[in-house]
Design goal:
99 residues, mainly alpha, 2 strands
């Protein structure tokens, strides 16, 4: 994903959310132009971060615990199997690093 693509997506999302409100010192008001520009910039950065680094969180959530991985490695060595290696490879394939 390019920065331009992320900007277009962010702009579209923020435009769809209008009007947006903010509260400052207990006073509610609609975003001004600078607030909308900042919201778009923040959303663009989030989109890019998710695209570039989201796979890390997905992999971390999918990996078995360290104890389970060590147990897999032990039984792989005893049984001459590749359960641990296959499990890790599948998680990496299911959650690829963006190019």
């Amino acid at each position: 994903m390019t920065e331009q693509q992320a900007l277009e997506q962010a702009t579209s999302e923020i435009e769809a959310m209008k009007p947006m409100k903010k509260q400052v010192n207990n006073v509610v008001s609609e975003y001004n132009d600078a607030d909308y520009e900042q919201a778009i910039e923040d959303r663009k950065n989030k989109i890019l971060d998710d695209y570039n680094y989201g796979y890390i969180k997905s992999r971390q959530e999918a990996y078995p615990s360290i104890a389970d991985q060590l147990d897999m490695q032990y039984w792989d060595s005893v049984n001459d199997t590749t359960v641990w290696k296959d499990t890790i490879a599948q998680i990496k394939a299911d959650n690829p690093k963006p190019e």
